[in-house]
Write a structure and sequence with these properties.
Layout lengths: L4 E5 L6 E5 L4 E5 L2 H7 L4 E7 L3 E5 L4 E5 L4 E6 L5 E6 L5 E5 L13 E3 L26
Parallel strand pairs: 3-10
Antiparallel strand pairs: 1-2, 2-5, 3-4, 4-9, 6-7, 7-8, 8-9
Length: 139
């Protein structure tokens, strides 16, 4: 594997993919949909251009769930791992769960999005910017 490619996959290992760096952004999402879909207080995503994502195995196991009028989430139908999020608002990009990657990407998390929707029981001690809505939606 070259230094510009990072591979990843689901919990059961049947869905495998690779992303080609560079990424566009990396951030922690606090929206209620991410929290419920992952069963976690926050979900960290990185975004790449669609052509930078390659499915290597298990494409037939991916299921898509329409989580909003503009977005879908893709997960493994065997183990339930959430892997990708896509939006018609940004059709040229795909969000990939950072925790599903096997190695590091080219940037650390840079910000918190939907910070206004955060859970009160998760203490944040980092100095990252906190956007009340999503990237590009709060301006």
């Amino acid at each position: 594997m070259d230094a510009t490619t990072v591979r990843g996959g689901c919990l059961c290992g049947r869905v495998r993919f690779a992303i080609r760096l560079p990424t566009l952004v990396c951030g922690h999402c606090h929206c209620s949909m991410c929290r419920r879909a992952h069963g976690a207080g926050v979900v960290t995503w990185t975004a790449v251009r669609r052509e930078q994502l390659a499915l290597e195995a298990g494409e037939e196991l991916l299921r898509r769930y329409r989580s909003s009028d503009h977005g879908t989430r893709s997960f493994c139908r065997i183990c339930g791992s959430q892997l990708f999020c896509e939006s018609t608002r940004h059709p040229e990009t795909v969000d990939v769960t950072l925790a599903s990657l096997d190695g590091p990407i080219d940037r650390p998390p840079q910000l918190h999005v939907y910070h206004a929707d955060r859970v009160e029981w998760l203490a944040l001690g980092d100095p990252l910017p906190r956007l009340p809505a999503g990237v590009g939606e709060d301006r």
